[in-house]
């Protein structure tokens, strides 16, 4: 089941993100601050949780400033032992549905060009995203930023 993220999900979701090994302490602090802001401020952000008796995945999406209907999928993660079970695809489908209701027209996602992110790039392609751009040496020397986009249909 995909549902809105609740404050009671926070610790489990942060653990999923930390266990990924892809976030340093600053990155984890940034994710926690964004989640806390979502709970405290009622921001425009969308946080959804994949729940299979407990949180097993999360997606976080924000509107892009100074655009008309463009949103950025900033975080998508499933628990390692639940990868490949459809939770990621379900989270993407649900975020797209929520965005269409809000009148969004374009969804972007950014990822690394490093070999260890090949699975993520393949996943986004299977979800209908197309690689739009590459910024060389963005994250660090030799670590390019790849930008994928998907046009949405308002529903």
Structure description:
The longest helix is centred in the first third of the chain and has 17 residues, at 25-41. This protein has a single domain, classed as Gcn5-related N-acetyltransferase (GNAT) (Aminopeptidase, 3-Layer(aba) Sandwich), CATH 3.40.630.30. By secondary structure, the chain is an alpha+beta fold. The protein has a 7-stranded mixed beta sheet with strand order 1-2-3-4-5-7-6, sandwiched between helices. It is 33% helix and 35% strand. The mean pLDDT is 93. The protein has helices spanning 10-19, 25-41, 87-101, 118-126, and strands at residues 2-4, 46-51, 55-63, 70-78, 106-112, 130-140, 143-151. α3 links the parallel β4 and β5 (106-112).
- Number of E strands: 7
Structural class: alpha+beta
- The low-confidence parts are none
The coarse silhouette is globular
Report the CATH C-level class: Alpha Beta
Total domain units: 1
Share of helix, binned? 25-40%
Strand fraction? 25-35%
The sequence of SSEs as H and E is: EHHEEEHEHEE
Overall average pLDDT: 93
Taking all Cα atoms into account, the compactness measure Rg is 15 Å
Strand order of the largest sheet: 1-2-3-4-5-7-6
CATH fold description: Aminopeptidase
CATH H level: which superfamily? Gcn5-related N-acetyltransferase (GNAT)
The count of helical stretches stands at 4
Main sheet?
7 strands, mixed
CATH architecture, by name, is 3-Layer(aba) Sandwich
Please report the distance between the alpha carbons of the first and last residues: 21 Å
